[in-house]
Amino acid sequence: MGLRKLKLKNPYLVAYIAIGVFFLLWMVFLDTHSLLVHQELNKEIENLKKRKEFLESQIEKDNRLISNLNNIDSLEKFAREKYKHKKNNETILIVE
What we know:
The chain is mainly alpha-helical. The chain is 75% helix and 0% strand.
């Protein structure tokens, strides 16, 4: 009996509810700005922030290395350790 009175007061109530539910489903799942798309974008943003932090630490490390290589002695040491450079009339033995 309550439903009949409700229907009599507003005959378009079912249409309003159906359109409202359709709109909510559209906004949550189907729209280009849906919640699912926002979740994926937030995950991508977090991954990019982590990558940025990693790359910034690598840049800092490289800058320290470059500043150390300004000295000719440290440059020679680096070349010997990293690239196995040698002086004339010198023999290098690599022990691993």
